[in-house]
Design brief:
Helix content is 43%, strand content 17%. It has helices spanning 15-23, 44-62, 75-90, 104-111, 130-138, 183-196, 211-220, 234-241, 259-266, 279-282, 297-308, 311-328, 331-346, and strands at residues 2-8, 30-36, 66-69, 94-98, 124-127, 144-147, 169-174, 200-205, 226-230, 246-249, 270-273, 289-291. Helix 1 links the parallel strand 1 and strand 2.
């Protein structure tokens, strides 16, 4: 089985590039990554004609049995990758489309438009949440729709899970530093928590367009005991994650399946987040942490206080999340599942 996989540059930040970089060593099929989009400091729109030519060249020379496209449901990627689908079908290739991110506002626009049928020629579609599957069905898609998850790299999973210091609690914000990812909600919640408990810290891991603003926000609002680590990888990331207890992730972004939450669970973190994307399909409230319905900092504060007041329950959640992530989210498990879907599509 030969599979041509469209990916963004693996050197870029982002969930899709991180996902396929992590799967690279776990494919058993013969595969080739075809890079598209922004790179070489050039905008993806400028490179688009060259990307189409490279795509056609790889179809002719690699001659794949199957092509995997990896858009998100947002205006730019949705319309761009529908053209890749059209090209692949001109070459009579079977195509699976894997939607990663899912923009609810764009979904609402498609509801009222004939453009929602652009992917109906795909042989199958992969999504990260049951709600996305149901939406595609409501749009009249008649092919197979498979569910999957993002992944946690095997190397990140510590065995056994290290014992955590229960006297000093480290809270975590882990993700891109953007307003829609909830960084300012997390900072406001932590400010109130720290007033009543000086034995807690907030570790902020990630980079983004609002990093500088977030640092200034802490200074101007007297938010203490916050450490901004920037983007980390390897042992530096592991060292921070293994000491943390609770991940506060107040995202209101168009999430598919936030990889940072799955990686966090693999370190035994208790999760306090919002019911977004594929998290809704597996997250067990109170058993894995808490879903917070609102965007109010005080509601996230209340959820964390509830955990801090019951150290035994917090410890129980840590162990449960670690085992759950190890069983369900590792790169090898995800690669095997995707290859099963590839084989299924090629069988008809």
């Amino acid at each position: 089985m030969k599979v041509l996989i469209n990916v963004p540059s693996l050197s870029l930040l982002g969930g899709v590039s991180n996902h396929f970089l992590g799967l690279e060593n776990y494919w058993s099929c013969k595969f080739k990554y075809n890079t598209i989009g922004s790179r070489f400091r050039l905008n993806g729109i400028i490179l688009l004609p060259f990307d189409f030519l490279a795509f056609m060249f790889n179809i002719l020379t690699f001659n794949p049995d199957l092509i995997l496209l990896n858009p998100s449901l947002n205006p730019k990627a949705y319309y761009r990758d529908s053209l890749y689908l059209l090209i692949a079908k001109i070459f009579s290739k079977k195509v699976i489309v894997f939607f990663h991110g899912w923009d609810i506002e764009f979904e609402d626009k498609l509801n009222k438009s004939a453009q929602k049928k652009r992917y109906h020629k795909a042989d199958a579609i992969i999504v990260l949440a049951k709600s996305f599957k149901n939406k595609l069905l409501s749009w009249g898609y008649q092919g197979d729709i498979f569910l999957t998850t993002t992944k946690v790299e095997e190397a990140m999973i510590l065995d056994p899970l290290p014992q955590k210091n229960q006297k000093k609690i480290h809270l975590l914000f882990f993700g891109r530093i953007e307003t829609k990812k909830g960084i300012f909600i997390a900072l406001d919640a932590f400010k109130n928590l720290y007033k009543n408990n000086k034995n807690i810290t907030l570790e902020v891991v990630g980079s983004g367009s609002e990093l500088k603003t977030a640092k200034l926000y802490c200074k101007s609002n007297a938010i203490e005991n916050v450490t901004f680590h920037g983007r980390l990888s390897g042992s530096e990331l592991t060292d921070v994650l293994k000491k943390c207890h609770i991940n506060i992730f107040p995202t209101h972004h168009g999430e598919g399946m936030p990889t940072s939450v799955l990686e966090s669970m693999a370190f035994g973190h208790t999760i306090v987040t919002r019911p977004v994307g594929g998290l809704v399909d597996f997250f067990k409230d109170d058993k894995m942490g808490y879903f917070v319905q609102s965007l109010k900092p005080e509601d996230f504060e209340k959820a964390v206080v509830k955990l801090l007041e019951n150290s035994k329950h917090l410890s129980k959640i840590e162990k449960f999340n670690y085992k759950f992530a190890k069983k369900n989210f590792t790169s090898s498990v995800v690669a095997k599942q995707l290859e099963y879907y590839f084989s299924h599509v090629l069988s008809y």
